[in-house]
Amino acid sequence: MQADLICVGSELLTGLVENSNTGFLARRLWGAGIPLRESSVVADNEEAIRTALNRGLEMSDLVILTGGLGPTDDDITREAVAAILGLPLVLNRGWLDRMEELFTGRGLKMPDNNRKQAYVIEGAILLENRRGTAPGLIIRWKEKLIILLPGPPYEMQAMFEEAVLPVILNFNKSNPVTVKTLKCIGMGESMLEEKIKALDNRDLPSLSYVARGYEVDLQIKGMGNPGSISQSIENAERILRAELGDYIFGSDEDTLAGLVAELLTGKGLTLALAESCSGGLLSDTITDIPGSSKFYRGGIIAYSRKAKINLLVIKEEMLEREGEVSEATAGAMAEGVRALFGADYGIGITGIAGPESDASQGPVGLVFVAVAYSGGSECKKLQLGGGRRSIKERAAQFALDLLRRKLIGG
Amino acid sequence: MQADLICVGSELLTGLVENSNTGFLARRLWGAGIPLRESSVVADNEEAIRTALNRGLEMSDLVILTGGLGPTDDDITREAVAAILGLPLVLNRGWLDRMEELFTGRGLKMPDNNRKQAYVIEGAILLENRRGTAPGLIIRWKEKLIILLPGPPYEMQAMFEEAVLPVILNFNKSNPVTVKTLKCIGMGESMLEEKIKALDNRDLPSLSYVARGYEVDLQIKGMGNPGSISQSIENAERILRAELGDYIFGSDEDTLAGLVAELLTGKGLTLALAESCSGGLLSDTITDIPGSSKFYRGGIIAYSRKAKINLLVIKEEMLEREGEVSEATAGAMAEGVRALFGADYGIGITGIAGPESDASQGPVGLVFVAVAYSGGSECKKLQLGGGRRSIKERAAQFALDLLRRKLIGG
Question: Of the candidates B274, B299, B250, B261, which has an alpha carbon nearest to the alpha carbon of residue B379?
Fold first, then answer.
């Protein structure tokens, strides 16, 4: 079973609106064992939708369309799909009442153009939208499934998780694919592959490797009877965990920051950050986690020499002697910020993100990351490639992993 | 003139690797007056590439393919395009020598599989790659252009800017489209549209509006003789600037953070940030700008009450009385961080990013943003919708705009 994805929206073709739906749906479908065959972005235009929908119906079992379900004149996906399939649009009285109540509840009169959102394709199943006025639609069409979802990611994602995923998993029952992803960090993609190949273990099914900065997703995939497959996947997981140990930090939907958050929260420990070259990215990543205020005390962006001296209480002569980008400075930043916020763990990151480097400090991509804790600290030196953003990202990932290893080690 | 974009890469269809090439190329092509007709992601597989390439050649004047130019076995774009067009691959001796030198220069022997990158489609123009070993290729094919670019964004973007853009602008000479984008902030999309419609000015050509969080891109578009068109666009720009004034913060490739950075650097002023609910996102945005260390002194992520009291020197009784999420606290954060870092401007952001709220503090989405400067401070209250990330993003955008208005006003 495979799927085609069609994102409808002229604004997406200008690149001025970010299209996060493709990535989200690709990941979720992949994880559900229904890989995307092709994904496309087309304009709000019946002809463009027709070509893409016909192609999808010809090649795949499932076609998902996002966008173009809004109330304005250029939202035409529902009308276009109805015309292409030769099905009428019919008023759904219940949805209309629901929308009218929604507006009344806010003390507003429903604008006339919202009425069209209550006209749905005949025979389609309506999907609840807790976050907007457009219903999702599921249409069974000649052994295939066509699913229409709203474009705004906030609405689409909730609808997909709650209403769509159960339906397509059920639809896929006859030919199930099971995927288990082990999330690794600390070893490059090719070294990981070499290590696993060297095992030469016939119990390992086909694996794929996907690198994301410092992380590698290791995917174990099996097709067939769920009972026997899940056993063989469990078996493969056991072999891989025995070999890779701490290089595996989680599985499936886990994130490195989420895992570190869980470890800290579970142990009742707190964290503070001192960032220089990563400029707040690590703090931003951590505070994206709901409930991070439980363990995260706060941070210092020490972007100037003076901030390092005054706030993190780093001795000026040490900075002079060792340099702002050095093991000693990263360690002092981690210890300084730990003391300043009274946290259990402190992280210090200093380096040169580029694109230019004052040669006296070292080359672009040179980064030191330190973790300080009760009774000591640990520091690592990195030489990172890529542009400014990529250097910031890898430095932040590496710091999270260093902290993770401390948390599971002690 | 319009373009089709085909991103080749099975890993992109899993969603586990982010596809930033579509957004980048869509934006750059749109700005160059060559809108994308359709954009698709296909697997590393000749049949999938064939279908997409044939469709692109049928519908568009320009087809760009990214990805699949690497040295490994699954990189087959070059070979597939050659086969589809019926053209042979020929060894480019110069490129081979160049790659060999590159490896020798690093003290390495070139792996055998890199050799295939020197085999190029007959008649194609090679494009320099300063950041990798895959050459880009431009092929003229029956009045159309086919362009092959490497997949890694870091390589692709440099190649596009330096080598591709001049060629396609030249190719498009006979039917040029000119687009000027005015970047607005501080007024919603629909209010902006209403205001401009009310002008009822016949000298205004067709405009389009694209909202991105708090920002709106206002696009003026014209087609035809560049001389007369640029004059009519300049004329429209003058009318819009007269009407919208400070709501316009820049044009075309300008970013709000980049503009604020320019204003600060130009005036020799410095900045410090105190972030609570935005959690470091604003600091991360600012430090993405190369050279930001010239004006950015640093910041405090005051994620705990204690950090606000100890570091930002906010009086505890004031926090008790006014609450951590209040105008008074945002103002005290801005002033505190300004003093702490000895900066000319201080920004304070406090609010409730959700998804849960301790009801005593206020509803999710309530945010206060303050700017402090020599002799005073200014604070704004916001009630933002959307999820946790979107609240963080809008709070950061709003803060940048508040600072911008201060910088251009005084």
Answer: B274
Question: What's the mean pLDDT in B223-237?
Answer: 83
Distance CA A156, CA A278 (A): 32
Q: Are residues A280 and B297, on separate chains, in Cβ contact within 8 Å? A: no
DSSP three-state, residue B272: strand
- Contacts of residue B244, defined as CB under 8 A and 6 or more positions apart, other chains included, come to B182, B184, B187, B192, B195
- Going by pLDDT thresholds of 50, 70 and 90, the confidence category of residue B408 is very high
Strand partners, A299: A273, B301
Q: Which of A179-183, B26-30, B182-186 has the highest mean pLDDT?
A: B182-186
- Residue type at position B356: E
Q: Which among A14, A299, A340 has CB closest to B26?
A: A14
Tell me: the pLDDT tens digits for A282-339?
A: 999 999 999 999 999 999 999 989 999 999 999 999 999 999 999 999 999 999 999 9
Question: Residues 6 or more apart from A222 whose CB is under 8 A from it?
Answer: A177, A178, A205, A229, A230, A232, A233
Q: State the CB neighbour count (10 A cutoff) for residue A166.
A: 10
- Whether the pLDDT of residue B105 is over 90: the answer is no
- The letter for the amino acid at B317 is E
B410: pLDDT strictly greater than 70 = no
DSSP string, B95-146: HHHHHHHHHHHTT-PPPGGGGGGGEEETTPEEE--TTSSPPEEEEEETTEEE
Q: For chain A, give the mean pLDDT.
A: 91
- Within 8 A of A306 by CB-CB distance, chain B residues are 297, 341-342
B18 touches chain A (CB under 8 A): yes
Q: Assess A16–B contact: CB distance below 8 Å, yes or no.
A: yes
- For residue B31, pLDDT over 80 is answered with no
Would you call A286 an interface residue with chain B, using a CB distance cutoff of 8 Å? Answer: yes
Q: Looking at the complex, report in whole angstroms how far the Cα of residue A20 sits from the nearest Cα belonging to chain B.
A: 9
Report CB contact under 8 Å: B212, A304: no
Closest residue of B to A152, CA-based? B386
The letter for the amino acid at A258 is G
Listed residue (B134, B168, B125, B126) closest to B154, CA to CA = B134
The reported pLDDT for the residue numbered B221 is 81
Q: Do A39 and B13 touch (CB under 8 A)?
A: yes
Residue B94 has pLDDT above 80, yes or no: yes
Is there a contact between B303 and A299 if contact means CB atoms under 8 Å apart?
yes
Query: What is the complex's ipTM, to 2 decimals?
Result: 0.80
Which residue has better confidence, B224 or A271?
Answer: A271
Burial B11-44 (b: 16+ CB within 10 A, else e): bbbbbbbebebbbbbbbbbbbbbbbbbbbbbbbb
Q: Which residues contact A259 (CB under 8 A, 6 or more apart)?
A: A249, A250, A404
C-beta separation of A388 from A350 below 8 A: no
Chain A residues with beta carbon closer than 8 angstroms to that of B63? none
pLDDT digits (tens, 9 = 90+) for A186-226: 887 778 888 888 888 888 887 888 777 789 889 888 877 76
pLDDT score recorded for residue B261:
98
Interface list for A 30-89 with B (CB within 8 A): 30, 35-43, 48, 51-52, 55
B306 close to A (CB below 8 A): yes
pLDDT at A354: 86
- Find the length of chain B: 410
> Are B275 and A304 in contact, with CB atoms under 8 Å apart?
no
Nearest neighbour of B283 by CB, restricted to A16, A280, A386: A280
Predicted pLDDT at B174:
63
CA of B214 to nearest chain A CA: how many angstroms apart? 13
Interface contact B354, partner A, CB < 8 A: yes
